[in-house]
Each structure stands twice: as C-alpha cells, then as structure tokens.
Amino acid sequence: MNLAAIILLPFAGGLLAWAFGSRGASARWLCLVTLVLDLVMTLATLMPRHAGWIEQLDWPWIPQLGIRIHLAVDGVSLLLVLLTLLLGIVSVLASWNEITERVGFFHLNLMWSLVGVLGVFLALDLFLFYFFWELMLVPMYFLIGIWGHERRTYAAIKFFLFTQASGLFMLLAILGLWWVHHRATGEYTFDYVALLGTPMARSTAWWLMLGFIAAFFVKLPAVPLHTWLPDAHTEAPTAGSVILAGLLLKTGAYGLLRFAVPLFPDAAGSFATIALIIGVVGILYGAVLAFAQPDLKRLVAYTSVSHLGFVLVGIFSGSVLGLQGAVMQMICHGLSTGALFMLAGSLQERLHTRELARMGGMWSAVPKMGAVGMFFAMASLGLPGLGNFVGEFLVLVGTWQHHPVIAVLAAVGLVPATIYSLWLVQRVFHGPRHDAWTTHDLSARDLVAQALLVAGILWLGLYPQPVLDSVSGALGHFPAYASVTPEQIR
Amino acid sequence: MTAPQLIACAPLIVIALAAVVELLLISFHSGERAAAIVAAVGLLLAGASFAAAYAYVPTTITALLVVDRYALFYIGLVLIAGLGTVALAYRYFSSPGELYVLLLLGTLGAAVLAASVHFASFFLGLELLSVSLYALIGYRAVERRGIEAGLKYLVLAGASAAFLLFGMALIYAELGTLEFARMAELVAAGGHARPAIWLVGVALLVTGVGFKLALVPFHLWTPDVYQGAPAPVAAFVATASKGGVLAVLLRFLIEVHGASFPSLVLTISLIAGFSMFVGNLLALLQSNVKRILGYSSIAHLGYLMVALTTPGELAAAAVGYYLAAYVVTMLAAFGVVAALSSAEGEAERLEDYRGLFWHRPWLAAVFTAALLSLSAIPVTGGFVGKFYIVAAGAGSSRWALLVILAVNSAIGLFYYLRIVVAMYSTPVEAPAERRPKIPMASGVVLAGLIACLLWLGLYPTPIVDLLRAPEVVAATASAR
C-alpha cells in the first residue's frame, strides 16, 4: 500500500465527515469506515517481512532547501501505525453517544489529529517530521478546547503552549543539524538517512540533542515537564483523552527512539544516566500522585506518567531487551489507558461526575463495566499474561544488565501501581453504594470497542514474539542500537 | 529614456497613470463603485505589465531606479497589498473616491522604494508613501482617535525622515555618492577614510527606517495607529508600507555588505531582540484585537531583522519569503476585522469575536488560519517563512538571536490563542442585531488570500525559485 495513502485516507475521511456530517450519524459512519479500511489495507499489504525499511516513498517537495516528502515504515513504525488506526476506531466508537454538538467539526478534528500522528510515525525527512509534529497539535487543541469539560480552555492552552514551545527548540536543533551537515558535506538535506552519522563536535552534538530531547520529553512526558498532561487528559472529551494518552505520548517516545538516540549516539550514551534517573523519578512520582487523585480521569492520567517512565528507562537502558520492552510498553499502555479513559467517559456520561468519592458499589448495577474495568486495572498493575507485564518485565530485565540500581528502583514503582489499580476498582465498583444508581450497562458498541482492546492486550501478553521480532528487526541496523540483533534474541 | 527602460518600469508608470485617471474621475463623477473599480483595474493592469517588464530585467533607469527580479518581486507584493486594501476599503467607507487616489499614490511610493538604488529615489518613494499615509490614517476625521493616530504618525514620521536625511547626508559627506552600488565599491576599496562617520550614517539610516518598520525603540506610534486607523488602512500600513521600506533596506544592506560590519550587525541584532520581546510582551497585555495585531507586527519585524543580520542569498530569500507570507497573513487578518466593522464602529474588542465561529464560520476560519500563520503553525505560509528565517540565522550561527526567537514564538502563541479561544467559545447570547452582510469583494479577496496562505505553506518551490535568482544579490553590478 502506498504510504501516502495511509495518511491521506483519514485526511479525506475527516473532510467528508465535516462536509456531510451535520446530522451526526453519517459523520461517525464515514470516519469508522475510513479507519477500518485504512487498518485493513495496512494489515493486508505491510508486514514486517525483513529487517530494516519495509516500504518507502520519496518525492521531491522543496528541492532548493533539500526538503523531500520521504515516508518509510519499519517494524516499529508499522506497529505504531496499527496502534494509531486501532485507537482511532476506538475513539470514534467512544464518542458515538458523548458528542452530540457540532459532530461534523468534531470528527474533522479527530481524524486530522490522527493524520498528524500517522505522519509523525512515517516521516523520515526532518522537515516533514516537524511539519506533522506541529500539525497534530491544532486539531487536538480544538478537541480539548471545544468539547472538553469544565476547565477546557485552560487545559487546551496549557497543552498547546507546552508542546509548541518545546517543539520550537527541536526546530532550532533540526536546522542546526542541517547546517552542520551542510558544512561537513556541502549538501543541503533534511533526510534522516543522510543525516545519520553526521560528523560533529561533541559539544555541538550535545546541544542539538538537547533540542530534540526538549520536545520529546515534554510529549513523553518526563518529570518535571509533565504538568500539562493531567490537565489536558482530564479536561479532554473521551476520544481526546484516548488519542492523547494512547498516541500523542507515544510520539515523544518514538521521537527518542527514532531520532534523538540514533542521530546523536555518543551524546545520548553519555546522557543515558540522567535520562534513566528522570525515568525512575517519573515512575515513582506518577504512581504516588495517581494514588492521591480524587478524580478518576486524573488518576488514570498520572498512571500514564508512571508507565511512560518505564518507556524512558527502556529506551536508555542500552540493551536489546530494554528497547523491546519499551516498544511493548508503548503499545500496551496505548491499549489499556485507552480502555480506562473510555470507561471513565462512560461512567461520567452516566453519573455526571468523575469524582471517586461519589462512586462506589457500581458492580451490581453495571457488571459488564466492572469486568472490563477489573481487566484493565489488572493490565495496568502488570499482571502476568497481559501485555503490560511483558513490557515492564523486559524493561526491568534489560535495565538490570547495566544499571541494577535503576532497575531496583523502577521495580519498587510496581508496588504503588498495584495499590492504585486495586484502589481504583475498589472505589468505583465495590463498597457501599452511595446512591441508588439505576443506569444501563455498556452498550453493544462500547463492548465491541472494549473487546478489541482486551483482545490486543491478551494477544500481546500471551504471544509477544512477533512484536519483539519486529522491533529488533527494525532497530538492529542502527549503529546506536548495534547490540540489538535478531540473533541475540533467539 | 529608451523603449526597454520605459517597458521595464511600466508597472510604476501604470500605477501613476491610474492615480491620475482616478483624480480626473472623482472630479466629474461621484460614486464609490466607479472609483474602486478604476483603482482595482489600475493595480491589476500594473500587475499585468509585469509580463512585458519581465523580458527586460535587469534594466537600470537613470541612476535612480533599477527594475530587476528582486524589484519586481517586491513590487508584486506591494501591488497585492494595494489591491487587497482596495477590496477591503470598498463599502467600508461610505465616502467618494479620494481614498483610492491616496491608496494608489501610497502604493506607488512603496513600489518606487522596491526599485530604488539611490538615496534620492529612496527618499522620494518614502515621502510619497508617508504623505498619503498621513491622510489615510486620519481619514475618519469625525473620530477623535483617528485624528490622534494621524497626527501621531505625522509627527513621528517627520522626525524619522529627519534622521534618515541626516544619515544620508553623513554618508554622502564621507563617500561623495548617493548611489548604493558606488558606495559598495568605495567601501570595499577602503575609500572611506573615517569609518566611524560612515557607520553612524548607516545607523541613522536604520533609525529612520526603523520608525517606518515600527522596530523597538522606534515603535511607539504603532499600537495607536493600528487602533485609530480604519481597518483597511491599518492593513495597508502593515503590509504595503512595511514591504516597500523593507525591500529598500534589504537591498541597501546587501549591496554595501552590511553583514560584514560587526557593529552594524550588533545594532540590528539588538533592535531585533528588543523588538521581539517588547512587541510580544506588550501584546500579551492587550484586549483590543487591533492593538494585539499592532504589537505583534513589531515582533514580526523583529523576526525579520534576524535574517537581516546574515549575509548572502539565504538572507534575501528568507526575508522575501517571510514578507510574502506576512503580507498575505496580515491582509487576511485585517480583512476579517474590516469585514466585521463599518466606518461607524470597529469590531476591535476581544468580546466582538466571542463565538464568532458559531455564527460566522467562514470568517472565523479565515481569521484562525491567519492567526495560525502568525504563530507559524505548519500548512500556513508563516511556518515556511519562519523556518526560512531560522535557517538563515542558523547558517550564520546567530544562536542567541534564534533562541530569543523561539522563546518569543512561544509567547506570541499565547495571545494568538486568546483570540482563537474567544472565536470558538460558546457565544454568551445570540447576536442581537442582524450583522451586516460581507461585501462580495471582501469575500472573494479573503478566499483568495487563504488560498495563497495555504499555497505558501504547502508548495513553496515556485516562490523560492523567484527568490533565489542570482540577480537579486548582484542587481546593480550586472546592470551596469
């Protein structure tokens, strides 16, 4: 399948939904069909047959500056593209009943934020990458700012300012790298493959890498740059929270994996210790704060800080297993957090509150919801057999090889994770009932969406090998990940 | 003058003729429609004459003017700005056509600036532009704020012209020439015995130009003029006026290799840094949309100055591209303000824009696109423009300025978002009175501007080609 088509299909779907979607149902169906079609076509035509790039597309764009439309997919980006499309479908289903106003415009923004995310995962030209990186912010800003909850304006502006401002430092770094490459080779290019291995002074590499790191750490988010996240996740509508937590955070991790480390391997190597410490602090801090939240969505938001700390540790662990675990954790976190946010959205729709104090004893009223909630709480605490366990375990084992202290501290983070996950289930579904809630359980549509996510988590937990192979096949040929070879894994 | 010279400067001649025709027309026929049509047709014909003029570039016309691709590019921008202003002004002022005479003369002044290579034509063009702006800014003589703005501009522009003339006089006293190219030769040959005087002259010149471009610390008139002037005129001040002046400044600096004088680079860098910070920080405090746009224009000229500190072709390309995007964006932004306003009352308070998206979706979309372009978000021309500026700065390792630029872009985002938030927030109550319909001319122009904005953002290749023409740099040298 043509790689441009993967991006253009949701783009066109969004436009059509806007044009013909004034009455709601047509917009929803248009988006759903587009995304399913995109997912099926991607699955059918792109499979990681071999290591390295599976498929590429390279068109000229602004030749005078060396800018090309260079898209490519390897094992890692393929997994993330599939995750994007799956969560896109889930978010369309999740907003079916929730969004009743300005439905066409909502779906335009929903689809175009997916376009931005897909572009980020596929772009191999740094200009194009930055282009998509900034592009995904605008529709997400509208999703939060128009359809969000009580403090939506504040949250939307905070989100936009944090991500855009950090992105500007990445822009400086990209142009700096472009210039350094030009001075070294006499060639103007933004092409990732050409820029790999550009010779430069140690200090230059450090500064340029920090520019990239600034953008990726805010998106990831790494403590202390995470403060936009709880607000944005809490105030966004359900679909917005699913895309934010499931996908936007992953663009930060992907950026580290694809750009920051391979472009500046030496600088990243000496930065690793700092990154690992920041990662561990994130794991512990996010978990402790999650425990203290009175708001269900805020609780889930802080668990993201904790879980993405594992991703950060995995990326900088300097080991095969750590990298595989990081990617595994990215995907599983996308699925499980997406499900939890959907559940929070369903609860809010029924109870008109997100406050844990006002919930309780819901199991008897909504048993299906309770079962789904229990399942994903277990996934979140890392129960063996579910995907998140594989991710966290691989990260811990990988980190242990070179950084045992970090591994121990990160493992300590699993304890509060257990507590807040069980506490979540306890507060919402068990205990005495505060009110005589009489409400309907999950609808068939919600169940379909949740079933997709349950199946994903189970598959990843029970048979993760294809994902692990895909990751090592993709990263093995980068000098920065030289230790990652398929042989080592088998 | 020979035939090729006449053809080469046809765009200028056509604008001048259009002004004369307009004068004759309004003496005999009072009607806004005819006057607006003559002005628009005149500007369009001037644009059409590019086809003929292009065959003869580069051509020098006496010692004063040169028509090269550089000049044609900036004249084209000025024409677009003029044409846009004419369309926005139509139906906005319920007055007969003197306005269009002034607009045509102002456009002519800016176009002359774009083609001038001599201090005499530099000053002539500048005054032609300024004099029409005095009258245009104070055009709504019934309103106190309009008069205040006009007077303020008159006094400060007069003072800045004095600085400019003094600077020119110092340079002439030192080098004995008024031609840019000759100056370049003399400076290169070390013919200036006292470099201090030459540099002071250039600094005074930059000061004079700084007033026109509203750079800190010469920016004090800007917010009042932007607020007090009618919206279409404010658009003209922001685009045509600044475009012409910037064109001549850039040409001068490139010809005399301004970037090779460290003290001059330092001066421009300081001006750039302060303009960015002052413009953006003060814009944060405003709640009046026109004042926000005024302060943000200070910041944007600061961004442009970053490129002026760098030598060579990349700087010329960056300035040209940024200016093109800026002209289109500002016209669109003020176009929306103008479309929502009438001569009786301007829609300038932030509350006037609350919930705009829900009852005027297209206008709100245009304004959103313009604001996103000002904050340099991809797909819009402003993004490629800023990218170019940063590329030029990176090429000369102006890292401190670039970091300031990045920080300021983030600050700028904040107040642009405030307007966007207002437009998309739920309206408090339904608008009481039926708002006036947008005139067709404005609608067409706004749609065209947005198309240009997207084109500049998505497919910059053809315009970059125009900018990278080698004559741009060595214009006069090759013409001689």
How many independent structural domains of chain B?
1
First-residue to last-residue Cα separation of chain A: 30 Å
Overall 3D form of chain B: globular
Mean pLDDT reading of chain B: 87
Describe the fold and architecture.
The complex is a heterodimer of chains A (490) and B (480). With 490 residues, chain A is mainly α. Helix content of chain A is 73%, strand content 3%. In chain A, strands 1-2 form a two-stranded antiparallel sheet. In chain A, helix 1 (3-20) runs antiparallel to helix 2. Chain B has one domain. Chain B contains 22 helices and two strands. Chain B has helices at residues 3-8, 10-28, 32-48, 50-54, 69-89, 98-115, 119-137, 144-175, 180-188, 195-213, 222-228, 231-255, 262-284, 289-308, 312-340, 356-359, 361-374, 381-395, 399-424, 440-458, 461-467, 475-479, and strands spanning 59-61, 65-67. In chain B, strands 1-2 form a two-stranded antiparallel sheet. In chain B, 60% of the residues are buried.
Short description:
By secondary structure, chain A is mostly helical. Chain A is built from 21 helices and 2 strands. In chain A, a hairpin with a 4-residue loop joins strand 1 and strand 2.
Write the layout of secondary structure elements.
The complex is a heterodimer of chains A (490) and B (480).
Chain A: H1 3-20, H2 25-45, E1 55-62, E2 67-73, H3 75-94, H4 103-122, H5 126-135, H6 137-147, H7 152-185, H8 192-195, H9 202-219, H10 228-235, H11 238-263, H12 265-291, H13 296-315, H14 320-351, H15 367-381, H16 387-402, H17 404-412, H18 414-429, H19 444-462, H20 465-475, H21 486-489
Antiparallel strand pairs in A: 1-2
Helix pairs in contact in A: 1-2, 1-4, 2-3, 3-4, 3-11, 3-14, 3-19, 4-5, 4-6, 4-11, 5-7, 6-7, 7-9, 7-10, 9-11, 10-11, 10-13, 11-12, 11-13, 11-14, 12-13, 12-17, 12-18, 13-14, 13-16, 14-15, 14-16, 14-19, 14-20, 15-18, 16-17, 16-19
Chain B: H1 3-8, H2 10-28, H3 32-48, H4 50-54, E1 59-61, E2 65-67, H5 69-89, H6 98-115, H7 119-137, H8 144-175, H9 180-188, H10 195-213, H11 222-228, H12 231-255, H13 262-284, H14 289-308, H15 312-340, H16 356-359, H17 361-374, H18 381-395, H19 399-424, H20 440-458, H21 461-467, H22 475-479
Antiparallel strand pairs in B: 1-2
